[in-house]
Structures are given as structure tokens and as C-alpha cells.
Amino acid sequence: MPKVNVYLPDGLADRVREAKLPISRICQIALTQALESASGPTGATSPTATAVPGPTEPTDLTPPPNHHVALILRQARSAAADRGAAEVDTADVLNALLDEGESVALTTVERLGFPRDDIRRALARAAAAHRADAVAPAAGPPRLSAGTRTALATGAAQATEHGSDVTTASHLLLGLIRDAGPAGEAMRRSGVADTVTPAVLSALYFGVSFGRIRLERDTEEAWLRTALTEITTRLGRIERGLPH
């Protein structure tokens, strides 16, 4: 994915770093809404309805993964290929989530008292144990393991309960917490599973959704103010050109 630099005043940059905000995700949402509003107001839309590229392997998820989850799955598959594995296991997926680092869900988990480094260490131990009897590498790119598909299905089921049109990182996180494989073991070892319950993840999802709806409304109102100013200016020019 192309990288774009964002420059901030020193004071604002310090506040953003202190709050551990997901800069990339926030910028993607804001820029998408700005581009859509540039051609006119779009009206009320789903807070997660932005078209996104799919993962490298079809997951048959309903609802489909959003941009963030699709990126995590691509990174997980690359990691599995790098280690010569035949399958993408849940440890690959959780590692990708930890490495990518821009997830609101992950930031929330850290703020609840579970640093990603602690989760990473627990995951390393769990992955080593679960991969001890791993099957030999197969020809071709690695495929999603049965455990990974189950975790994704668990997340998609919660997305459906939420009425979401995409499976988000908070939904994926539930699937990883409930995983019977290495990711789930790491979540239990690190204590995440005891605190980050389905109710917590639901609250996180609806909180983020509300914030995105507000962002859409603010963007549309800004477009409307700009459009009205331009119309007023043009009318003033026309009026000055008419004979009195």
C-alpha cells in the first residue's frame, strides 16, 4: 500500500502520539469522505461502507472483510509464506494485527492494560507449541487454515449481529480471542481474553461507528458551507454585472 507522509504541528503531533491514535486509519476515512463530498453530498451512508480491496485469498465471509482486515490477512499470508508454511494459522493473523499497529481495536486493548509486546511474547510461546507438529509445506501459496477460517467466521457472525456490512478488526479480534489455536492461547496467556469480552468489543464497534457517522456529517456540512459560499459569490458577481 503506498505511503503518504502527514505533517502536523509539533503540539498536535505530541497529542496524537500521547493518545496513540490510529493515524493511518483516521486519515483514510477523512480523505475518503472528502473525496466523496468533493463531487456533492452523499447523504447518510453506512460508517463502514467504503469500497475496499479484498484479501489475497477469497474468504467467503458474510459480511466481507473491510480494508483493515483485508490488509491484515494479506500480511498474515505473506508471513506464512516467508516461514515456508502450507497454511496461514491464527498466529500469523494475530501477528499481522500486532505488526500493522493501526487498529482502533488493538489500541483499545493496549489502553485496557495489555501492551502488544506482552501479547507478542505470549503468542511466540503459543505458536511454537502449536506449530511443533505442523504439516510439511505444500506447493503453491499458503492457504487459510481451518482454525483461521473458524476465527474469521466467528468475527463475521458478530458483525452480522451488529448489522454491519463489513467484518471489522474488532470482529476479527473476537474470533482470535475465541480461537482454539495459538492466537486464542496467547490471548488467554496474556489475560486479554478475561477482560476483552464480546460486550466490550460490541461497545468498541458501536463507539467507532458513531464517531464515523459524526465525521461523515461534519464533512457533508463543510461541503455544504463551501458550496453555499461559492453560490453566494457567483450571485454577487452576476448582480454587479446587471444594469440597475
From TrEMBL:
Coiled-coil ranges from the UniProt annotation: none
Alphabetical keyword list: Hydrolase, Protease
Keyword Hydrolase appears in the UniProt entry: yes
Hydrolase as UniProt keyword: yes
GO biological process, one term: proteolysis
Biased composition (Low complexity): 37-54
Gene Ontology molecular function: peptidase activity
Pfam families: Clp_N
Residues covered by the Clp R domain: 67-188
Region (Disordered) residue spans: 36-66
Cited Gene3D superfamilies: Clp, N-terminal domain
Protein name from the UniProt record: Clp protease N-terminal domain-containing protein
Lineage: Bacteria, Bacillati, Actinomycetota, Actinomycetes, Kitasatosporales
